Amino acid sequence: IMAQTVRTISIRAYGEGSTLKLDVPADTPASALWALRTQTSLTLRGASEDSEAALTPISQRPGTADGGTAFVGTGFVMQRSLNLNAVRCTPAGDRTDCSAVARWVAFREAGTPSLTQWIFWLRGDIAALASGSR
After folding, report:
1. Hey, how many other C-beta atoms are within 10 angstroms of the C-beta on 68?
2. Digit-coded pLDDT (tens) for 52-111
3. Is residue 130 a contact partner of residue 122, using CB atoms and an 8 Å limit?
4. Is the separation of the CB atoms in 78 and 117 below 8 Å?
5. Phi, psi of 77 (to 5 degrees)
6. What is the model's pLDDT at position 64?
7. In this structure, what are the phi and psi dihedrals at residue 53, rounded to the nearest 5 degrees?
8. How far apart are CA 2 and CA 10, in angstroms?
9. Please, are residues 78 and 116 in contact by the beta-carbon 8 Å criterion?
10. Euclidean distance between CA atoms 72 and 87, whole angstroms
11. Positive or negative torsion for Cα 54, 60, 65, 71
12. How far is Cα 64 from Cα 123, in angstroms, rounded to an integer?
């Protein structure tokens, strides 16, 4: 979904699907880099005030400390993970309870997944261009 969003914005702003200049940090998850592999204007550098678009961890924001450049952003889940330590057979009296293993095998249920979210940021003037209001 994230790669399609980047492509759609690039088409709306520039008429070409891979023209949007997207800055991503070096520690970007491999899955995101793979999804964005067709973006020819992708740069491995951190987001800055002059970035047209940027991908950052949820705790970071592009731009300056004084908020000089306006960015709009939307979150995307980059990773889902489960702690499978509890998925095991446990002794239950004279028997063994393997219901946790059965739930995992049959339904892939093992508790609440941990989500890693990143934000796709778009500079305000590019967002206006892509929306057709400029």
Report:
1. 8
2. 999 999 888 886 555 567 888 999 988 888 777 778 888 888 888 898 888 888 887 777
3. yes
4. yes
5. -75, 125
6. 56
7. -145, 155
8. 12
9. yes
10. 41
11. positive
12. 12
For tokens 């914005």, what's the residue? Answer: 9
Whether residue 28 contacts residue 72, with contact meaning beta carbons closer than 8 Å, is answered with: no
Give the residue among 130, 133, 132 at the shortest CA–CA distance from 52: 130
Strands, E assignment, the chain: 22-24, 42-44, 53-57, 71-81, 90-92, 95-97, 114-123
User: What Rg, from alpha-carbon coordinates, does the chain have?
Assistant: 21
Cβ neighbours around 35 below 10 Å, total: 17
For 11-65, what is each residue's pLDDT tens digit? 999 998 888 999 999 899 898 999 999 888 888 887 777 789 999 998 888 865 5
Q: What is the rounded distance in angstroms from the CA atom of residue 50 to the CA atom of residue 62?
A: 9
Nearest CA among 47, 44, 14 for reference residue 32: 44
Strand partners, 28: none
Which pair of tokens denotes residue 63? 């731009």
